[in-house]
Design goal:
The protein folds into two domains: 191 residues, FAD/NAD(P)-binding domain; 175 residues, FAD/NAD(P)-binding domain, CATH 3.50.50. It contains nine helices and 15 strands. The strands form two sheets. It has an eight-stranded mixed β-sheet. A hairpin with a 4-residue loop joins strand 4 and strand 5. Helix 1 runs parallel beside helix 6 and helix 2 packs parallel to helix 6. The protein binds flavin-adenine dinucleotide (FAD). Flavin-adenine dinucleotide binds next to helix 1, strand 2, strand 7, strand 10 and strand 14.
């Protein structure tokens, strides 16, 4: 019998394991093997940008990002493109640009040795039973059922734990996030956000990452995702993005919570942390800070009195996180109204003028590109 079984070794699960592992017999289960080299589909599909909120969460955890987790360029501007109006602005905002697979591996490397870690093992079922819960695991060795006094679902947007234990809880709206890695040796050093209702009611993005650019979009689940994504790539190319060959595409689910009932934290024996709980920004899709903060909140709840009552203490401690998600849901709903976004862009408040980009030393792809003014037309 384990005291705690953690399902998922992303930022939320690794944080729980790092901070709570010493309070009893703990197991963390992660379906992915650690990868030797990065590439599309090898780690969690993600832009890998640590926004100021994530930087603050790391500071509160007493952590600094090691050099080999960082990639480049470090980004200090968001370039917003509003396709219906053709407006474009740059806004100052400081991100840490990281390699997401290495970021997760680093967080897992901080888990204490007395926590049992099983990688390449998938959780295929969870159910509350008596004064604990049963967790079914499937790996190379076959199927096994383990028992725990408390289960922590840190298994992200498509959470198996959430589906099995909270089947009646309303699900946040689900988007399909598609991300394609393109070769690019000298991309503009900013995070481009594209707003185009013909692509999605959320947004698309381009993020320079080492010698690549990630082009991504979160599109409503359903038909036409691939065609919408192709349109985004065309818009970005027309807007001046210089990319070369594709290195491949990856995809996953992304939650976009809108209502308090979609944020599910705990029953007596099962807690949800990170995106499994619905903790992710509905306006920007930033989720790393929420994963770190909710993981730390669960560990603090455990530290405050052991397994008994931990789920209840965690539920109370996460009230500020729930309020934060809901305030961002309001912001997301306002941004979705094209008129407000277009007025904000027209006013230019908070934006910075950006000079002409320097000539590229070694561009990849066609040598002549449409000018920025013709994109999206
Ligand atoms: C395309 C995309 C881009 C994004 N870009 C950013 C960004 O730039 N910055 C940012 O802050 N946020 C970003 N987000 C959001 C962010 O990635 C998530 O909110 C964050 O990773 C949530 O952390 P988590 O630990 O809760 O879940 P996850 O990171 O999803 O981790 C869940 C872990 O559980 C494992 N798992 C899942 N199911 C099982 C199972 N049944 N058994 C065992 N293991 C399982 C998974 O393999 C995974 O490792 C992005 C999201 C997407 C989809």
């Amino acid at each position: 019998m384990y005291d705690v079984v953690i399902v998922g070794g992303g930022p939320a699960g690794a944080t729980v394991a790092r901070l709570a592992g010493k309070f009893g017999r703990t197991l963390i289960v992660e379906r992915r093997e650690d990868v030797a080299a990065d590439g599309p589909g090898r780690g969690k599909p993600c832009g890998g940008l640590l926004a100021p909120d994530a930087q603050r969460a790391l500071a509160a955890l007493g952590l600094g990002v090691p050099r080999d987790v960082l990639t480049g360029p470090q980004l200090f501007a968001v370039r917003a493109l509003d396709v219906p109006t053709g407006r474009e602005r740059h806004y100052p905002r400081a991100y840490l640009n990281v390699d997401r697979a290495r970021f997760d591996a680093w967080l897992r490397s901080l888990v204490p040795r007395d926590v049992e870690v099983r990688r390449g093992v998938r959780v295929t079922g969870v159910r509350e039973r008596g004064d604990g819960a049963e967790v079914q695991l499937e790996g190379r060795g076959g199927i096994e059922v383990v028992h725990a006094r408390l289960v922590v679902g840190a298994d992200g947007a498509g959470s198996r734990v959430r589906r099995d234990v909270f089947p009646l809880a309303p699900e946040p709206r689900r988007y399909v996030a598609i991300q394609e890695w393109f070769e690019a040796r000298a991309a503009e050093p900013c995070y481009t956000a594209v707003f185009d209702p013909a692509v999605t009611d959320f947004y698309g993005w381009a993020i320079p990452k080492g010698d690549a650019v990630f082009v991504g979009a979160a599109v409503p689940a359903g038909a036409g995702a691939a065609a919408r994504f192709e349109r985004l790539v065309t818009i970005l190319r027309r807007s001046g993005l210089r990319v070369g060959r594709s290195r491949g595409r990856e995809g996953t689910l992304l939650s976009r919570p809108r209502r308090p009932s979609e944020l599910v934290t705990a029953s007596a024996r099962v807690a949800l942390v990170g995106e499994a709980a619905g903790f992710v920004s509905p306006s920007s899709a930033e989720g790393i800070s929420f994963a770190l903060e909710s993981g730390a909140a669960f560990a603090a709840a455990l530290a405050a009195g052991g397994v008994a009552g931990a789920a209840e203490r965690y539920r109370s401690a996460t009230a500020p996180l729930r309020r934060k998600v809901l305030s961002k849901a309001l912001k997301g709903a306002l941004l979705d109204r094209g008129l407000l976004r277009s007025l904000a862009l027209a006013s230019g408040i908070g934006s910075v003028p950006v000079g002409a980009a320097p000539a590229l030393a070694d561009p990849i792809g066609p040598t002549s590109w449409p000018t920025a003014r013709t994109w999206g037309r």
